[in-house]
Amino acid sequence: MESMKETTRGEDLYNQVSAVIERMKLPWSKLVNVTTDGSPNLTGKNVGLLRRITDRVKEENPDQDLIFLHCIIHQESLCKSVLQLNHVVNPVVKLVNFIRARGLQHRQFIAFLEETDADHQDLLYHSRVRWLSLGKVLQRVWELKDDIIAFLELMGKSDEFPELSDKNWLSDFAFAVDILSHMNELNVKLQGKYLFVHDMYKHVKAFISKLTLFSRQIANKTFAHFPTLAMQEEAPRNAKKYCKSLEDLHGEFSRRFSDFEKIEPSLQLVSCPLSQDPDTAPEELQLELIDLQSDAVLKEKFNSVKLNDFYASLNKATFPNLRRAAQKMLTLFGSTYVCEQTFSVMNANKSRHRSRLTDQHLSSILRIATTNITPDLDALAKLGDQQHCSH
Fold this sequence. Notes:
Layout lengths: L9 H14 L9 E4 L3 H4 L5 H12 L6 E4 L1 H8 L6 H15 L2 H14 L16 H11 L1 H11 L11 H24 L6 H23 L7 H4 L8 H18 L1 H5 L1 H8 L11 H12 L1 H7 L4 H7 L6 H11 L6 H13 L9 H12 L6 H7 L8
Helix pairs in contact: 1-3, 5-7, 7-9, 9-10, 10-12, 19-20
């Protein structure tokens, strides 16, 4: 992680990245993939970071093709904008802010929930930078809907939120709760370390297929996978609208994940080599695939060890091209999850109360906080100077 004090143009980003790569003596020709969050200073066609990296790699190896990916988790989060749920989200956020942003009303609401023995003790705030926030906020408000209506009537404020008595709006609200619940389930599957790209893309493909099923069922006024919506009287009348929303969401997913679709054959080959047809594989891999699929010992090993361990165990002389293809696919980053997690660690450590924390200190703290290595403290103590007993 590098600190940037001033501008963050494509040129500035490239200079920082280039300095790190040169300092660590990494060959540009070995660079396979760059995954970003899609911001213009990274993806600009002429002066963005990716363009400059491409030109630099081509200088050393003209045949090297870089794989540029847009973070799967970020893409999935952006897809929900096509649902056009602002007419639902805005009143819900207004309602939450109305209750939570005023100290007295907030305390009264919590006390009211305790008296009514509600399932939850409070509402949740919506934060745009948190991936799961919106779905959880809507879910919580829906589950406390009756309590909220009773509280607003008690306070004489029910007229300020007419949507809560509008059956069509409640039907849209129920649809939003259900579809965002499905999207949150997908989001959770995409999070975490040590996820290979083919595993992440597999979940996305499954979700796209589910959207087709949802759309077809709702067109037939069947709400088996939308339990909240199924309870609404207006749901059958609005089925056509919800079907259109799901079709739009399907199209948005297909469009946004086209960069992963381009590398899908390579991902499929590496993740399922035993079922791959050698005729459809690249020529340099065909003979090695046949050898692999004919070896009973390797077939058994493939089913009993992790994918990266399996390819690491292949004989270098017998399967050089297959190993190289696996290295390329298994080193891809499908998301910027690790960066986001590390950035959160940095924010937790870099506060205004630690004014003497330098960039070097921060770098050391981040390394300790994010490493999986357990230090041998006894051995380190022996290497250093003898400490005074008072220390």
